[in-house]
Amino acid sequence: MADTVVFPIDTPAGRRTAEVSYERLGGGEPLVLLHGIGHHLQAWDPVAGILAAERDVIAVDLPGFGASPALPDGVSYDLRGVVPVLRALFEALDLDRPHVAGNSLGGLLALQLAHEKLVRSAVTLSPAGFWTEAERRYAFAALRAMRRGAESLSTQAVARLARTAAGRAALTGTIYARPGRRSPDAVMAETRALRECAGFAATLAAGQRVLFTHDIADVPVTVAWGTRDRLLLRRQGVRAKQVIPGARLIRLPGCGHVPMNDDPALVARVILDATR
């Protein structure tokens, strides 16, 4: 079951509160898990139990996604707005420079947290921010199409589609290389999360201006990319390595954009190895 934490943050209108939903399990060094745009913390379910055998795992619904409400008025969904909220979240949960692993948007946030030395290591799975303009437009068009599809389908239609492998592929084939492995309940839940998330449009708008250009010398960084990522093409991983020469660049054979479900054992091993 998810817990909720409410904590103070600074906004242009003064001190306000943010609320974040999270799940915590396991023991050991703390490891925060950050999902991608339109998703929710349950994206990490296939690997969370494996990680929890060695880590204190904190899977987070980013503000405006999953069960976490929207950010207070005046707080932006760009890196300048969200990273301070995550820093305040770490303080509220008594996390002193945790490890962090992030996918897509979560990977970009993980890199910024590492750049600001707020974490002790960063594992990024297909992180955003290393695209060309054409690649960004393509990815954003695909995300908007997924959102429109989620908004247009009734709950009953989603349930019917989720019951078949072909239907799960239609709903989630953009982000999974093996969508048939996703359970019907998980597909229904993530389609609902995509339809209902309050932060989608603002996050996408903020992303139009994003390129990650910082070298990160003092925090270990791992960049892992699925060889079958259809949303952020794997050549962007080569650019990430050029920007962060000290990063480990790892291929995830047969994995899509959200690789945790495509190959849980491989993804968990990459994260555990990188956070030792």
Automatic annotation (TrEMBL):
The keyword Hydrolase applies. Pfam families: Abhydrolase_6. One of its GO terms (molecular function) is hydrolase activity. Gene3D superfamilies: alpha/beta hydrolase. Residues 31-269 form the AB hydrolase-1 domain. InterPro entries: AB_hydrolase_1 (IPR000073), AB_hydrolase_fold (IPR029058). Keywords: Hydrolase. This is Alpha/beta fold hydrolase. It comes from Streptomyces roseoverticillatus.
